[in-house]
């Protein structure tokens, strides 16, 4: 067996998941990326050709128990152990109680919440063998405060509670569990989920979000990848149960504060 630590990333062929895969592959982990279709894997390799021989890209569906069973068998046969799990697969459909369709609601719950539950439950025996595994759930600030989708917000809030529950449940196996809750991160997510069809409208949305952030910038996938890399490391060996807003301060936005004057910002203290 390879001596590298083995890390599985669901949704690891696009956006945040792909950036995590690239970061961890560069840190000498053995990275397994699970994706729902071949097209996303092909796009990932076109965007990141350097990952062709560094990441084990496989196809699977986190909402299907049969597919997860096959994934577990594959990891057991080829690697024998799992040191880290990053639950990054996710979908979003914008909508309120009145506008969101029941099947859209169910799809988000199946992939964003039931998926991490099934993957974690099924792969637990492999993580027990690691003698110190780490699980990281990629949640969202939409799980901490309502966003543009009732289904997405509820699924991510549920994912945060799954994190909290598993801390005590899996702690006796020396398995740490944490959530990362990104704000707006520029990825393919909004295009892949048909929320935007053209770059101009997407750019307007990003600019509107940027000015609402105290740091006046939105996130990059690398911001999330860096935090994942830290939480997987020995330096984070006493961190479990954290739900970490990684959103440029947007969760602490205070619209009652007066705007800062340029002169004050430039004044040297």
From the structure above, extract its key features:
269 residues, SDR, NAD(P)-bd_dom_sf, 7 strands, alpha/beta, Rossmann fold, seven-stranded parallel β-sheet
Structure notes:
Strand 1, helix 1 and strand 2 form a beta-alpha-beta unit. The chain has 269 residues and is an alpha/beta fold. The longest helix has 27 residues. It is built from nine helices and seven strands. The protein has a single domain, classed as Rossmann fold.
For the largest sheet, list the strands in their spatial order: 3-2-1-4-5-6-7
| Helix fraction by DSSP (H/I, runs of at least 4) | 40-55%
Terminal-residue CA separation? 58 Å
The SSE string, one letter per element, is EHEHEHEHEHEHHHEH
Strand content: 5-15%
Report the total helices. Answer: 9
What is the CATH architecture assignment? 3-Layer(aba) Sandwich
**CATH homology superfamily:** NAD(P)-binding Rossmann-like Domain
Residue-averaged pLDDT: 91
Rg is: 19 Å
Q: What name does CATH use for the topology?
A: Rossmann fold
- Please indicate the count of domains: 1
What oligomeric state is this? single chain
Which structural category do the helix and sheet elements fall into? alpha/beta
Q: Rough shape?
A: globular
Main beta sheet: strand number and arrangement?
Answer: 7 strands, parallel
> Count of DSSP E strands?
7
- What top-tier CATH class fits best? Alpha Beta
Query: Which blocks of ≥5 consecutive residues have pLDDT under 50?
Result: none
Organism: Marinilabilia salmonicolor
Family: Belongs to the short-chain dehydrogenases/reductases (SDR) family.
Domain Ketoreductase: 5-183
Pfam family, one: adh_short_C2
């Amino acid at each position: 067996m390879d001596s590298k630590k083995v890390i599985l990333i669901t949704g690891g062929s696009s956006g945040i998941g792909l950036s995590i895969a690239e970061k961890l592959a560069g840190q000498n982990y053995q990275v397994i990326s699970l994706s729902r279709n071949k097209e996303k894997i092909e796009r990932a390799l076109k965007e990141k050709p350097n990952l062709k021989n560094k990441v084990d890209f496989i196809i699977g569906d986190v909402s299907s128990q049969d597919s997860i069973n096959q994934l577990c068998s594959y990891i057991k046969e080829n690697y024998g152990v799992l040191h880290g799990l990053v639950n990054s697969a996710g979908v979003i459909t914008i909508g309120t109680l009145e506008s969101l369709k029941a099947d859209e609601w169910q799809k988000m719950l199946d992939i964003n919440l039931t998926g991490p539950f099934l993957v974690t439950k099924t792969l637990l025996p492999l993580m027990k063998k690691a003698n110190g595994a780490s699980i990281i759930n990629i949640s969202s600030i939409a799980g901490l405060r309502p966003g543009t989708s009732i289904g997405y917000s509820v699924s991510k809030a549920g994912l945060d509670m799954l994190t909290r529950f598993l801390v005590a449940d899996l702690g006796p196996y020396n398995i740490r569990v944490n959530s990362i809750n990104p704000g707006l991160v520029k990825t393919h997510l909004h295009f892949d989920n048909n929320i935007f069809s053209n770059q101009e409208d997407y750019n307007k949305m990003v600019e509107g979000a940027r000015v609402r952030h105290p740091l006046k910038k939105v996130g990059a996938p690398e911001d999330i990848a860096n935090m994942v890399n830290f939480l997987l490391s020995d330096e984070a060996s006493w961190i479990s149960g954290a739900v970490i807003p990684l959103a440029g301060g947007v969760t602490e936005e205070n619209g009652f504060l007066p705007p800062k004057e340029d002169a004050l910002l430039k004044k040297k203290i």
